[in-house]
TrEMBL record:
It comes from Ancylomarina euxinus. PANTHER family: 2-OXOGLUTARATE OXIDOREDUCTASE SUBUNIT KORB-RELATED, SUBUNIT OF PYRUVATE:FLAVODOXIN OXIDOREDUCTASE. This is 2-oxoglutarate oxidoreductase. Residues 70-222 form the Thiamine pyrophosphate enzyme TPP-binding domain. The keyword Oxidoreductase applies. The lineage of its organism: Bacteria, Pseudomonadati, Bacteroidota, Bacteroidia, Marinilabiliales.
Length: 257
C-alpha cells in the first residue's frame, strides 16, 4: 500500500475530526491581523450550521469595520444605514417571524449613532439577536474615540487620553439594556481563547433559540481587540484587553429569563 493510498483511506468522512463550515464562504477577509471580527464570524457561522438554519437566517450588517460581513457568511443579508440595524431587523422579524434574524454591530454603530435604535428595540422586546462587538474604538474611520473608549485611553481624537470630565464616561451598554423589560438574555463574552469561543458559541445558540419563543431580545456583547486602532500587535492587544477592558467590561451573563 502506497503512502497516497494510505492518505486516501485516512481522509474519509468517518475519520474527519474538523472541517470548515459551509456557511463560511471562501472569500479572503479584509480585517486586520488579530482582529476579533473574523473569529466571531466563524463562531456565528458554525452555530448556524450546527442548528441547520442556514436557509432560515437573515443577518443585518452595519456601517463600520464589519460592513462587508455579507461577503463572509452564506446567508441572506440586508444592509442597514449607520446605526439603524435594529430597526431594519425589527421590520424583517415582524414580516417574517419564521426567520432567525440578527444584527451585527460595532460600538460606533450601535452605541453612538445607533444608541436610540437599540434602546427602543430592546424596550419593545423584538424577537431578534443582536451581536455587539466592543473594541473601545472606531476602527474603520481611523481610530477615533468611541462611547466605549476607556478613561485615559489614547485614540486619534483623544491624544492625551479620554477625559471623562469633558467627554463623559465609557458606556456599559449591556448593563443599561439589561434593565429594560424587553430584554430576555444579555451576556458579555470574548473570543481570545478556545475556551472563550466555546462559551461564545453557547451564547449564540441560546440567542437564536430564544427568538423562537417570542419572549424578548437576546443581546450578546463580545469584547474584542483592534490591533490597528490600539497600535499594538495581536498578542499585545489580547494582553491589553485582558488587563484593561475586562475589569471595566466584566464577562458573564447579566440577564437570563
Amino acid at each position: 500500500m502506497t503512502a497516497t493510498t494510505e492518505l486516501k483511506n485516512i481522509i474519509n468522512e468517518e475519520n474527519v475530526v474538523y472541517k470548515k463550515t459551509s456557511v463560511l464562504l471562501d472569500n479572503e477577509m479584509h480585517y486586520c491581523p488579530g482582529c476579533t471580527h473574523g473569529v466571531i464570524h466563524k463562531a456565528i457561522a458554525e452555530v448556524i450550521d450546527d442548528m441547520d438554519i442556514q436557509e432560515k437566517t437573515i443577518g443585518v450588517s452595519p456601517v463600520g469595520c464589519s460592513v462587508l460581513a455579507y461577503n463572509y457568511l452564506d446567508i441572506d443579508w440586508q444592509q442597514a444605514a449607520h446605526g439603524r440595524a435594529p430597526a431594519l431587523a425589527t421590520a424583517t422579524s415582524r414580516l417574517m417571524p419564521e426567520k432567525y434574524v440578527f444584527t451585527y454591530q460595532g460600538d460606533g454603530d450601535l452605541a453612538s449613532i445607533g444608541c436610540a435604535e437599540i434602546m427602543h428595540a430592546c424596550n419593545r422586546g423584538e424577537s431578534i439577536v443582536v451581536f455587539f462587538v466592543n473594541n473601545a474604538i472606531y476602527g474603520m474611520t481611523g481610530g477615533q474615540m468611541a462611547p466605549t473608549t476607556l478613561e485615559g485611553q489614547v485614540t486619534a481624537t483623544s491624544p492625551y487620553g479620554r477625559d471623562c470630565q469633558t467627554t463623559g464616561f465609557p458606556m456599559r451598554i449591556s448593563e443599561m439594556l439589561a434593565m429594560l423589560p424587553g430584554t430576555r438574555f444579555v451576556t458579555r463574552e470574548s473570543a481570545e481563547t478556545p475556551g472563550a469561543v466555546r462559551k461564545l458559541k453557547k451564547a449564540i445558540r441560546k440567542g437564536f433559540e430564544n427568538t423562537r419563543e417570542n419572549k424578548g431580545i437576546s443581546f450578546i456583547e463580545i469584547v474584542g481587540t483592534c490591533s490597528s486602532g490600539w497600535k499594538l500587535s495581536p498578542v499585545k492587544s489580547n494582553e491589553w484587553m485582558k488587563e484593561n477592558m475586562f475589569p471595566y467590561y466584566p464577562l458573564g451573563t447579566l440577564k437570563d429569563e
